[in-house]
């Protein structure tokens, strides 16, 4: 919420005698019934000077005081320096960062935490590309719960070139994933369409009518409880690696959202899926040369991997 923009004091008219206070507010002030109920529960409504519950019945002639704060725009870019974001490379056209876990790429409805876009604004980076203000320069995304290397474009030229590169799958996106068990075969391709999970919000699944999704993987290390995979994405669907590995019955370690073992996650001290964007390679939009950037494992993933390596 931002500062209050509207404060009204009215006498309850005869026509609303006996109405619940939330219904009375909705009818008098033109807000939805649910918004009126929110105002009551948040303490913005007083009847004859006293706070009331939303089920309170109003009577003619009583004084109704209502403060209606403006709702914050969920897409507003809030400048905020985010601890842990590391600048890997910066030039006139692009900025390459190492994104920590717990940071969204850009603002979205329902997300109130830090964002990459907000950090770049606060840090003084000038991003001048077309599109919605909260998504300027964004040509790729990493989940809030996924860390690693990503590129943001600073110029319209860079935006156009790299957006096309991602669209035409000429960008080399390499991830490392620690998954439960041992995928068979040790190296392979998962070609399975992905769509929104029909029974769960914020979740995706392999579905016959989903969007084409292709994941290539190979095993780097096989341990008693888990395998470290190198993963190359041909497509870039939301949660793609997590969904595909879960579909193989080898979910990313500690990915409780997609069926990982919570006991193993606790043993490793992990509070998010073991998945990291380690490398990103593409043709630089200005020089035309192939460039490649890398991100080391964050401390939590590195520590968990060492425990897995030491398990006998």
3D architecture notes:
With 312 residues, the protein is an alpha+beta fold. It is 21% helix and 29% strand. It is built from seven helices and 15 strands. The protein has helices at 21-29, 33-41, 116-122, 156-167, 240-247, 262-268, 299-310; strands at 4-11, 45-47, 50-51, 63-69, 86-90, 94-99, 147-153, 172-180, 187-191, 194-196, 204-206, 214-222, 226-233, 275-283, 290-294. The strands form three sheets. Strands 5, 6, 7, 8, 9, 12, 13, 14 and 15 form a nine-stranded mixed sheet that branches. It has a four-stranded antiparallel sheet with strand order 1-4-2-3. Strands 10-11 form a two-stranded antiparallel sheet. Helix 1 packs across helix 2. Pfam families: PseudoU_synth_2, S4. Responsible for synthesis of pseudouridine from uracil.
| Number of discrete domains | 3
Q: Structural class of the helix and strand makeup? A: alpha+beta
Q: Give the strand tally.
A: 15
- Uncertain segments are none
Mean pLDDT equals 92
- What is the CA-CA span between the terminal residues? 52 Å
EC number: 5.4.99.-
Enzyme class: isomerase
Keywords: Isomerase, RNA-binding
Function: Responsible for synthesis of pseudouridine from uracil.
């Amino acid at each position: 919420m931002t500062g209050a923009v509207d404060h009204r004091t009215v006498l309850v008219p005869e026509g609303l005698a006996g109405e619940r206070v939330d219904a009375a507010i909705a009818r008098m002030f033109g807000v939805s019934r649910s918004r009126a109920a929110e105002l009551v529960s948040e303490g913005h409504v007083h009847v004859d000077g006293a706070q009331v519950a939303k089920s309170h019945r109003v009577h003619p002639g009583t004084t109704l005081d209502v403060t209606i704060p403006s709702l914050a725009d969920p897409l507003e870019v809030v400048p905020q320096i985010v601890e842990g974001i590391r600048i890997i490379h910066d030039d006139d056209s692009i900025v390459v960062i190492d994104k920590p876990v717990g940071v969204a790429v850009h603002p979205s409805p329902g997300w109130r935490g830090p964002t990459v876009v907000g950090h770049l604004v606060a840090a003084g980076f000038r991003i001048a590309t077309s599109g919605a203000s909260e998504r300027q320069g964004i040509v790729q995304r990493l989940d809030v719960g996924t860390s690693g290397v990503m590129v943001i474009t600073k110029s319209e030229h860079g935006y156009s070139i790299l957006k096309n590169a991602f669209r035409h799958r000429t960008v080399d996106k390499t991830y490392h994933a620690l998954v439960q068990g041992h995928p068979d075969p040790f190296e392979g391709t998962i070609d399975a369409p992905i769509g929104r999970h029909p029974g769960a919000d914020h979740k995706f699944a392999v579905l016959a009518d989903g969007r084409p999704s292709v994941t290539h993987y190979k095993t780097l290390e096989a341990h008693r409880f888990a395998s470290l995979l190198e993963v190359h994405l041909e497509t870039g669907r939301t949660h793609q690696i997590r969904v595909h590995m879960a579909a193989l019955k080898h979910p990313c370690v500690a990915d409780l959202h997609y069926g990982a073992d919570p006991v193993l996650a606790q043993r490793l001290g992990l509070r998010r899926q073991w998945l990291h964007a380690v490398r990103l390679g593409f043709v630089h939009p200005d020089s035309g040369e192939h460039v490649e950037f890398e991100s080391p494992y964050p401390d939590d993933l590195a520590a968990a991997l060492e425990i897995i390596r030491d398990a006998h």
